[in-house]
Structures are given as C-alpha cells and as structure tokens.
Amino acid sequence: MAQKREYLSKNQKIVLDYIEKANQPLKAYSILFNVQKKGLKAPPQVYRALDRLVEIGKVHKIESKNAFVACKNSNCTISNATAFSICDGCEKVTEISNPKLSKYLSGFQDNSGMKYNKYNLEFFGLCKKCR
Amino acid sequence: MAQKREYLSKNQKIVLDYIEKANQPLKAYSILFNVQKKGLKAPPQVYRALDRLVEIGKVHKIESKNAFVACKNSNCTISNATAFSICDGCEKVTEISNPKLSKYLSGFQDNSGMKYNKYNLEFFGLCKKCR
DNA sequence: TATAACATTGTTATATTATAACAAATTTAT
DNA sequence: ATAAATTTGTTATAATATAACAATGTTATA
Prior knowledge:
The structure is a homodimer. Chain A is of the alpha+beta class. Chain A folds into two domains: about 10-70, Winged helix-like DNA-binding domain superfamily/Winged helix DNA-binding domain (Arc Repressor Mutant, subunit A, Orthogonal Bundle); about 80-125, Ferric-uptake regulator, C-terminal dimerisarion domain (Dna Ligase, domain 1), CATH 3.30.1490.190. Chain A contains four helices and five strands, in the order H-H-H-E-E-E-E-H-E. Chain A has helices at about 10-20, 30-35, 45-55, 100-105, and strands at about 60, 65-70, 80-85, 95, 115-125. In chain A, strands 4-3-5 form a three-stranded mixed β-sheet, covered by helices on one side. In chain A, a hairpin with a 4-residue loop joins strand 1 (about 60) and strand 2. The longest helix of chain A has 13 residues, at about 10-20. The interface of A and B includes residues 117 and 131 of A. The structure holds a DNA duplex.
C-alpha cells in the first residue's frame, strides 16, 4: 500500500484555503481563476489538488453540480459517507450532519450481495427563504 | 403551467429505445454515436431527448459517472426518489428498489427548514464477483 | 380548412469540465 | 549523498454540455 503524505502540499493548501473561505460550492475553473495570483496557472494543478482533498475528505464534490465544498466536520478524515441539502431556488448547499441518517445509510444492506463502503446522498428542495 | 406531451417524440423514442436495450449506464456521446444511423447527428438532439426522459422519469442520470440509465420501475413517471448501487470494480450500476429505504428517505426531515421533494443516493462498493 | 400557438428538430458554434503526457523541481528515506 | 518517490509546471487535448436560431411539424380551434 503506497504511503501518502499526511499533510498538505503547497498547492493543496492554497486550494483548500480558498474553498474554506467560500462557504459554498465552487466550480473548479472559478477556483483556478482565483488562485492564479498564487501561482496555480493551469487546470491540472487545481484538479490534482481537488482530487487529493476529496480523497482525504477535506473537500466534497457535489456531483449534481460539478462543484466542490469544504467538509464541515472538522474531524473528517475520510469521505465515505456524505449527505447534502441543496436548495433549487438559491442553490445553497449544506452538508447534512445527522447521526441517525448516517447510521441508517452506513448500515444499509440489500440482498444484492453488494458490500457498500461509501455513499453520497443529495436532497433537493426549497429552503425557508425560497419557499 | 405549460402543457407537455404525454407521449414521446421521435428522437426521445430513439434515445430511450437505445438506452433500454443497454441495461447499463451509457454516456451521452456513446448514445450519440450509436443513434447517428437513426438521424440524430448532433449533441443537442441527444441531450434534449435525455433532458426530457430524465424529467419524466424514464431515464436516470448517474451523477457520479455522467451516464444515463433506463428506469427499472416500469411504472415510474416522475423521477424524484432515486437510489443506485455502483460497483467500483466492474462499474455495474443497479437501481435500488427498496420500499423501506425510499420511505425512510422520502420522509426525511431535519431542522434546517428545508422542504425536500427529491433525492438521489449513490452507494459504492464491490459486487459479489469483484470481491 | 386555415391559422395561430407551441413544441420539436436540425444545425453550427462554442462553453464548460476534466485528463493525458512528460519534463523539471522538490521532498523523503536510507 | 543519493536513489526513490512525490509534487509541480506546462502544453495540449479529450469529454461533457449548452446557446442560439432558423426550419419544420403538431395541436387546438376559429
């Protein structure tokens, strides 16, 4: 099993810092544009950092939006159980942190013989303001 | 509220037929390539059909793979509650049809004030063969 | 039937998202 | 010191998706 750094590289830090400040999902090319002043000039630099950040759970990808958001669970180190709430009105995305839900889904089994080790759930609806 | 056709247009039928025969998720451009002999020559023709088929629930999009699969619930007319099982080994995707799960998720509420009317859940793991 | 309203189609071009490939520089372990 | 591995920088291109608009087809109803 390949060893991997336990700390973040320079580019990974730059990208994570920027995402954490945003408090909302960001598109990869918008991140790219905004970190160009820090020296990351080309897409692979951003995508590589994102890949790693997602792998270690510091960042999640909102698949339905091709956007990236910082993990809110400060202790999160691996990203295998994610749930989001997405407002179709204002597009606000919130990470759902609900022990019952995650327990239910982590324990979910069906009779297919599949052994699940990861899930991603996206709820859509309208938030208070947008209703 | 705009009225919409209740039956499928020519292009929608062509695309749906092809997806239904596949029994596995297909990429939009692979669909395009394969329906060119039927006269659909450009991406918008395929994407438009897909958009509509997804909207009426005949087809689901597997967001994590940018792929499209026919709905297995023959009576499915609206696509607001979807769950899939995805094997990380062979990439096989199966639509999960589990009344308990869908009941649990359809009834899910948190204290955010969000009113959910749709969800999509993707489970990842290894199927029997790939373990 | 005529025709207005609307939905679908065909088409070209382009926007958006993401990766391949490889050389150079940096970091790590010995 | 130096080999091994990782990260970085860079160019090019692949893969996914939409904008815009003219032409055609369909539906309802006057």
